[in-house]
């Protein structure tokens, strides 16, 4: 039976139904009224907006507040109560603040299938970060430990970020020294999404944009001076990602890597075929092995290294002689075994028919760059290397007025040694004799003293060792003024795109001039300010130069010890090749000197020229322009340290190309540590997530942020052809 309207189940009409409805409506109106009254007292809209603010908005608010504080503090130069510099000490943070996003991102089979999930994750992560920041903001001041003496004033690191004011302290920039104007391009496209593609280039997984610009190489008028091996950077740097070799796997750890590497990581056999008999490299199943030999030391580098010190004891490996330049290094076994003598070697060789020799070196965990002695100066300051070494490096030192040997003279420290092991030293073939006679004449004109010429009976080679003078007396009394002395206006430190000059730079003689004295022995030189840093000079961060140097070192010791080594979950046993992308004084590298790593310190050409200081303390590095690609093979660094470099690059370069370059030089599973402005950190986090990197940690305080990310193995399926890199 059908039930009537408003009927009970038993069929009887409800006599109280209307009154019940009236009561419910009345209660409803009352509740609405209460809600409206509550809304008038609490701005609901504002509450919702605040809870849903993006992380970048929260951090931007902090930045504006901080800038107001900085302005106030600047008005009172004697104020000693400025905020403590942010040091990323895990002991200072709440448990939630130190939480990382430790869930690895699975490598997708199809990027589009994961877009929705990725967006959902980003929303959840953004909420988590906002909650974390809220907790940090609520902390009372006394909960944050504050030191009485600050490393650098301003918790927002205003001085750290703006050190280029007042002509960069006491130092010019490399760009100014080299009299080169850097061409910059402003990247104004504020993208919210990123679509990456793989580079379709002839070099494939070995692509180096500035060395594989085949279009520029084809247009060269001459290759007589190895112009085709020099840098030819494209005007439009690539924004694509370099492919991986098939079968690529995580690099073997040091020191085992010195003896063997995975074949599939550097799948080249040509060098093994032509140099295997000299114990350069051999193929052994799934490995490439390195017996430790070379053209001049077939029976091992260590015997050869010790032989050099035996014939000239003043060389004193690891004490007097700490920083070495190895010209035409091959697979860099010489530099690799000098680590056993506490010596740091900058090895270089061109990307030439000796297939992937520098790539072999870096995969082994040995410092090296792709470079050639051609028509331009090498990217190093003058008077910084303790020793320059050449073992059959195939460089014609004696031709064209000795221009190439004069470039070594520019970089060699007064009192430093040139170690030359080549056939003209010990063979009597007509060509060798002719070269030896030319070298005798040239080295005499350079006032180099021949310290020893000796025969290594084991390796059956000869070694000649010369020493550069400590004074200008010989230069002024030469019977012939060839090569001539350089003009006073010729700065020996100018090294970025500067043509070679066939002239001799005078030796500094003033007591406070760099190069007039030998540095302290290693390791004391790592910690002490160089003698030529004067209190009258203004340092990068605004203090007297020696004080600036010391403060920088103390700062990085604290950060490295309290945060990087023990507080971030980095497995340092997998870290060997490290780059500091903005080195300043080299304090970060000095703080790592007891670790089993080496650090390539980069001084950008438009930054204060502090690279000589880095060399003086027994470390090394080079000049570079981060608007261009670096002269290294892909996948060669285990850890990149970027202290306030991304925000600077974004102002003047193609930012997406810079991100692609970071991806190119970092190995899969490698770590990138970024310290920068909060808004930059937020943008970087989004960009690296779009490449499926794992975010290990993000943290912010005031306007400063820290980001730790680990590169994945993901590569896009779609490719883009780079016309200038196609043969």
Automatic annotation (TrEMBL):
<feature type="compositionally biased region" description="Polar residues">
    <location>
        <begin position="100"/>
        <end position="112"/>
    </location>
</feature>
<keyword id="KW-0472">Membrane</keyword>
<comment type="similarity">
    <text>Belongs to the methyltransferase superfamily.</text>
</comment>
<dbReference type="GO" id="GO:0005768">
    <property type="term" value="C:endosome"/>
</dbReference>
<dbReference type="InterPro" id="IPR029063">
    <property type="entry name" value="SAM-dependent_MTases_sf"/>
</dbReference>
<dbReference type="GO" id="GO:0032259">
    <property type="term" value="P:methylation"/>
</dbReference>
<feature type="region of interest" description="Disordered">
    <location>
        <begin position="47"/>
        <end position="152"/>
    </location>
</feature>
<feature type="compositionally biased region" description="Basic and acidic residues">
    <location>
        <begin position="47"/>
        <end position="66"/>
    </location>
</feature>
<dbReference type="GO" id="GO:0005802">
    <property type="term" value="C:trans-Golgi network"/>
</dbReference>
<feature type="region of interest" description="Disordered">
    <location>
        <begin position="166"/>
        <end position="187"/>
    </location>
</feature>
<feature type="compositionally biased region" description="Polar residues">
    <location>
        <begin position="73"/>
        <end position="84"/>
    </location>
</feature>
<protein>
    <recommendedName>
        <fullName>Methyltransferase</fullName>
        <ecNumber>2.1.1.-</ecNumber>
    </recommendedName>
</protein>
<dbReference type="GO" id="GO:0016020">
    <property type="term" value="C:membrane"/>
</dbReference>
<feature type="compositionally biased region" description="Polar residues">
    <location>
        <begin position="166"/>
        <end position="176"/>
    </location>
</feature>
<keyword id="KW-0735">Signal-anchor</keyword>
<keyword id="KW-0325">Glycoprotein</keyword>
<keyword id="KW-0808">Transferase</keyword>
<keyword id="KW-0812">Transmembrane</keyword>
<dbReference type="Pfam" id="PF03141">
    <property type="entry name" value="Methyltransf_29"/>
</dbReference>
<dbReference type="InterPro" id="IPR004159">
    <property type="entry name" value="Put_SAM_MeTrfase"/>
</dbReference>
<keyword id="KW-1133">Transmembrane helix</keyword>
<keyword id="KW-0489">Methyltransferase</keyword>
<feature type="compositionally biased region" description="Basic and acidic residues">
    <location>
        <begin position="113"/>
        <end position="151"/>
    </location>
</feature>
<dbReference type="GO" id="GO:0008168">
    <property type="term" value="F:methyltransferase activity"/>
</dbReference>
<feature type="transmembrane region" description="Helical">
    <location>
        <begin position="21"/>
        <end position="38"/>
    </location>
</feature>
């Amino acid at each position: 039976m059908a039930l009537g309207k408003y009927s009970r189940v038993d069929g009887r009409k409800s006599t109280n139904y209307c009154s019940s409805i009236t009561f419910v409506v009345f209660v409803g109106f009352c509740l609405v009224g209460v809600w409206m009254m509550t809304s008038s007292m609490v701005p609901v809209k504002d509450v919702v907006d605040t809870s849903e603010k993006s992380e970048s908005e929260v951090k931007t608010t902090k930045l504006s507040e901080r800038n107001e504080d900085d302005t106030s503090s600047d008005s009172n130069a004697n104020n000693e109560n400025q905020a403590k510099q942010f040091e990323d000490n895990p002991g200072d943070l709440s448990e939630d603040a130190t939480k990382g996003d430790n869930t690895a991102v699975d490598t997708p089979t199809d990027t589009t299938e994961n877009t929705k999930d990725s967006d959902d994750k980003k929303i959840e992560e953004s909420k988590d970060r906002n909650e974390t920041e809220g907790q940090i903001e609520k902390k009372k001041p006394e909960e944050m430990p504050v030191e009485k003496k600050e490393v650098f004033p301003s918790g927002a690191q205003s001085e750290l970020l703006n050190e280029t004011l007042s002509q960069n302290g006491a130092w010019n920039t490399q760009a100014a020294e080299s009299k080169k104007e850097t061409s910059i391009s402003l990247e104004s496209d504020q993208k919210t999404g990123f679509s990456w593609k793989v580079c379709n280039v002839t070099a494939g997984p070995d692509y180096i944009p500035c060395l594989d610009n085949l279009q520029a190489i084809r247009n060269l008028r001459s290759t007589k001076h190895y112009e085709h091996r020099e840098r030819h950077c494209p005007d439009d740097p690539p924004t694509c990602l370099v492919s991986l070799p098939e079968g690529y796997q995580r690099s073997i750890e040091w020191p085992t890597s010195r003896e063997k590497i995975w074949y599939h990581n550097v799948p080249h056999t040509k060098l093994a075929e032509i140099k295997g008999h000299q114990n350069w490299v051999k193929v052994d199943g799934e490995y490439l092995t390195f017996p430790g030999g070379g053209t001049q030391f077939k029976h091992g580098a260590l015997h050869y290294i010790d032989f050099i010190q035996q014939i000239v004891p003043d060389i004193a490996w690891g004490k007097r002689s700490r920083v070495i330049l190895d010209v035409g290094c091959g697979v860099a076994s010489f530099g690799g075994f000098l680590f056993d003598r506490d010596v740091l070697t900058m090895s270089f060789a061109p990307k030439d028919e000796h297939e992937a020799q520098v790539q072999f070196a870096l995969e082994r965990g040995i410092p090296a760059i792709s470079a050639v002695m051609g028509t331009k100066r090498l990217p190093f300051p003058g008077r910084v290397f303790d020793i320059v070494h050449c073992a059959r490096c195939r460089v014609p030192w004696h031709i064209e007025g000795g221009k190439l040997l004069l470039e070594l003279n520019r970089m060699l420290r007064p009192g430093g040694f040139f170690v030359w092991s080549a056939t003209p030293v010990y063979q009597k073939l007509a060509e060798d004799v002719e070269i030896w006679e030319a070298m005798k004449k040239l080295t005499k004109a350079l006032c180099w003293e021949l310290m020893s010429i000796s025969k290594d009976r084991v390796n059956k080679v000869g070694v000649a060792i010369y020493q550069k003078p400590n004074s200008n007396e010989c230069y002024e009394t030469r019977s012939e003024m060839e090569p001539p002395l350089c003009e006073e206006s010729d700065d020996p430190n100018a090294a970025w795109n500067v043509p070679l000059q066939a002239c001799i730079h005078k030796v500094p003689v003033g007591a406070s001039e760099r190069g007039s004295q030998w540095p302290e022995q290693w390791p004391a030189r790592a910690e002490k300010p160089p003698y030529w840093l004067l209190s009258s000079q203004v340092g990068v961060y605004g203090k007297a130069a020696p004080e600036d140097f010391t403060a920088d070192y103390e700062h990085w010791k604290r950060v490295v010890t309290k945060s990087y080594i023990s507080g971030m979950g980095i497995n340092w046993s997998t870290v060997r090749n490290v780059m500091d992308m903005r080195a300043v004084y080299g304090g970060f590298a000095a703080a790592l000197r007891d670790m089993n790593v080496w650090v390539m310190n980069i001084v950008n050409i438009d930054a204060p020229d502090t690279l000589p200081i880095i060399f003086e303390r027994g470390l090394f590095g080079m000049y570079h322009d981060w608007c261009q690609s670096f002269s290294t093979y892909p996948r060669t660094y285990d850890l990149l340290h970027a202290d306030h470099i991304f925000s600077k690059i974004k102002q003047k370069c193609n930012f997406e190309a810079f991100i692609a370059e970071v991806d190119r030089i970092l190995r899969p599973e490698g770590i990138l540590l970024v310290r920068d402005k909060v808004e930059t950190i937020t943008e970087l986090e989004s960009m690296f997530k779009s490449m499926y990197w794992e975010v290990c940690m993000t943290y912010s305080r005031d306007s400063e942020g820290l980001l730790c990310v680990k590169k994945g193995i993901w590569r896009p399926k779609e490719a883009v052809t780079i016309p200038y890199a196609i043969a």
